[in-house]
């Protein structure tokens, strides 16, 4: 069954949540103008935001990271966005010399050996190109939602990213059902890996399908007892703090239906 079939359902208050999201995006465009950027992971939440930007004609640029280790299915969404919406997606890749140096020193699969090496890999492949992506920007738009993990349970619509920019999280209050209801209602293109029980998709070596009953982000760096963050959203990841230590309850999946519990 597809992710739409499993998860999409309209729940009470959806229309109001959608209206608030559109207003958050409109206000970001008004407040920051060309300084605003959608930093899209090409995950389903970000595809919803891209659809809203296009649907409402908002002057917000799009950019993504190509780490060099993404699934082919993820990268295939870039031309689909361009074809569907007529929007350009600027792609930022890591500095090749830094990748070569890291791999020569640590190997292709260094991330499995320690949290420190995994974070160093994320630093080279994600954080450095993100810094270039955001250079000169005053605001960036993300697909963070409170339901995604305990670490993100307090995500606001707007926050200081700690680097002198505003981070805008227009889907902060959306549920997983909301996301897929919107995808179904508006025929939003999405990564087919979501149909294979991968709700959170990152680099191929660091992403697996989750089992029923597992945390929403359990498929990311599944071999670690960590906060399941790479540093892109540092304000929602306390170093050395496992998600299980938070009092907030992360999203899990029903063992019978596979739907969010």
UniProtKB/TrEMBL annotation:
Active site residues according to the UniProt entry: 230 (nucleophile)
Molecular-function GO term, any one: adenylyl-sulfate reductase (thioredoxin) activity
Annotated [4Fe-4S] cluster binding sites: 121-122, 203, 206
Principal subcellular localization: cytoplasm
Every Phosphoadenosine phosphosulphate reductase domain range: 38-209
Polar residues composition-biased segments: 243-261
Span list, region Disordered: 236-261
The family this protein is said to belong to: Belongs to the PAPS reductase family. CysH subfamily.
E.C. no: 1.8.4.10
Listed InterPro entries: APS_reductase (IPR011798), PAPS/APS_Rdtase (IPR004511), PAPS_reduct_dom (IPR002500), Rossmann-like_a/b/a_fold (IPR014729)
Annotated NCBIfam families: APS_reductase, cysH, PRK02090.1
Cofactor details (free text): Binds 1 [4Fe-4S] cluster per subunit.
GO biological process: cysteine biosynthetic process; hydrogen sulfide biosynthetic process; sulfate assimilation, phosphoadenylyl sulfate reduction by phosphoadenylyl-sulfate reductase (thioredoxin)
Top-rank taxon: Bacteria
Organism: Roseateles chitinivorans
GO terms under cellular component: cytoplasm
Enzyme class, first EC level, given as a word: oxidoreductase
Location within or outside the cell: Cytoplasm
Swiss-Prot/TrEMBL keywords: Cytoplasm, Iron, Iron-sulfur, Metal-binding, Oxidoreductase
Any coiled-coil regions, as ranges: none
Protein function: Catalyzes the formation of sulfite from adenosine 5'-phosphosulfate (APS) using thioredoxin as an electron donor.
Pfam assignment, any one: PAPS_reduct
Entry cofactors: [4Fe-4S] cluster
The protein's annotated pathway: Sulfur metabolism; hydrogen sulfide biosynthesis; sulfite from sulfate
Protein name: Adenosine 5'-phosphosulfate reductase
């Amino acid at each position: 069954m597809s992710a739409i079939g499993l998860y999409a359902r309209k729940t009470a208050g959806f229309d109001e949540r959608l209206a608030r999201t559109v207003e958050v995006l409109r206000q970001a465009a008004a407040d920051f103008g060309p300084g605003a950027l959608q930093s899209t992971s090409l995950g389903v939440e970000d595809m919803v935001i891209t659809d809203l930007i296009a649907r409402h004609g908002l002057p917000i640029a799009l950019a993504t990271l190509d780490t060099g280790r993404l699934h082919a299915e993820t990268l295939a969404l870039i031309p689909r966005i361009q074809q569907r919406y007529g929007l350009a997606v600027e792609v930022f890749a890591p500095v090749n010399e830094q990748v070569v140096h890291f791999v020569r020193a640590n190997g292709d699969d260094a991330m499995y050996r320690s949290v420190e090496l995994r974070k160093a890999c994320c630093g080279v492949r994600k954080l450095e190109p993100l810094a270039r992506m955001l250079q000169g920007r005053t605001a960036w738009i993300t697909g963070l939602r409170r339901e995604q993990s305990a670490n993100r349970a307090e995500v606001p619509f707007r926050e200081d990213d700690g680097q002198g920019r505003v981070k805008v999280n227009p889907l902060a209050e959306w549920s997983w059902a909301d996301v897929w209801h919107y995808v179904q209602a508006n025929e939003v293109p999405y990564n087919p890996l979501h149909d294979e029980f991968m709700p959170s998709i990152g680099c191929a070596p660091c992403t697996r399908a989750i089992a029923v009953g597992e945390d929403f982000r359990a498929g990311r760096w599944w071999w670690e007892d960590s906060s399941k963050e790479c540093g892109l959203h540092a304000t929602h990841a306390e170093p050395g703090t496992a998600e299980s230590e938070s009092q907030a309850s992360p999203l899990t999946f029903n063992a019978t239906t596979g739907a969010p519990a």
